[in-house]
Amino acid sequence: MWKDIEAAPPDAIFGLTEAFKKDESPDKINLGAGVYKNEQGITPIFACVKDAERILLGREQTKSYLPISGDPGYGICVQNLLFGADSEIVTGGRAATAHAPGGTGALRMGAELLKRFRPAATVWLSGPTWANHRAIFSAPGFAINTYPYYDAATRQLAADDLLSCLATIPAGDIVVLHGCCHNPSGVDLDTAQWEQVFAISTERGWLPLIDFAYQGFADGIEADRTAIELCARTGGDFFVASSFSKNFGLYNERTGALTIVCSSKEETAVAMSHLKATIRACYSTPPAHGGLVVKTILEEPNLRGSWEQELTLMRERIAATRTALVEGLAAHGVKEDYRFIANQRGMFSFSGLDEQAVAWLREEKSIYIVGGGRINVAGLSSANIDYFCAAMAEAINR
Ligand code: LMR
User: Fold this and answer.
1) How much is the pLDDT for 232?
2) N or C, which end of the chain has less CB nearby within 10 Å?
């Protein structure tokens, strides 16, 4: 069967992890996949996750199926995290939430569902965007287009171009927005810019789909939901794909959620019925463990406090690493101003390294960076940052 079939190319992000594992250099550094590492270079299990797991192990009575949309308490926790418990969306029953296997699963379920009811829509992605977005929305057959987002010359948001493009997108199309910590650029909209975006979405009638994978990594759990809150205020329909891979460290438990916000409680019930039908035809019902861990942490005040503390420490470590990176590059003789790295948010930094430099760093220095020059800042620590800054300086000055 496979004799005449060409192999698929390695994944743009996880392909790097595979290559990294085979690399025998003692200096090798993996700054590819968005996975948090601590000062010891380890991706730790949160203490609150371990505690929640102990509680769950003692309590568990059955491995019978969860409902198609997942544990109902988990759905409530997700909505409270997204909108706040007293938001009108929550109290008015205007949101349908289903557990999905990770943020990718949430996006894909959203895409499958939307393809049924908006078959002719175009899906608009930011230029640039997360490498997997195109594949996820192409899979059900959507046409894809790009809206301007990042200006490589100024290393800032291309705000004017972004807003003018959004104002041309027709009613019914779907616009994928990054809720915070834009992946890959680390450049976010400010509150006034988000207000403009949602004024345009309301006027034009396109559907916002907010990819929300880094809540807590920019300014804080509540501070990071500005985009969601402003979108909620429009009173219109929108989708949110949540991921708890990063902010609970539950990468391999595939813990995410798709939330569909509707304009009435009645419409929400209709949306949920179709979401369930979509999930049933795809993976039937979700895995239990990650969702129950998140629910246990969010429902138990001590565990929640511990979670918030640990997330704050992660956010602070990344911010300090950004500063150390800017200083390290200057110390290694880079003349250009790299202070923009310190202003970017979340795990990633768009380094400005071109494809040649990315390839050179991999071949000569065993440093693995995603094509386009995205660096996972959370993969640097005091043990490897000097080696990295020296190599990056050499790549820039070559
Ligand atoms: C990333 O962007 O590196 C992460 O979201 C991991 C992934 O699934 O690609």
Assistant:
1) 96
2) N
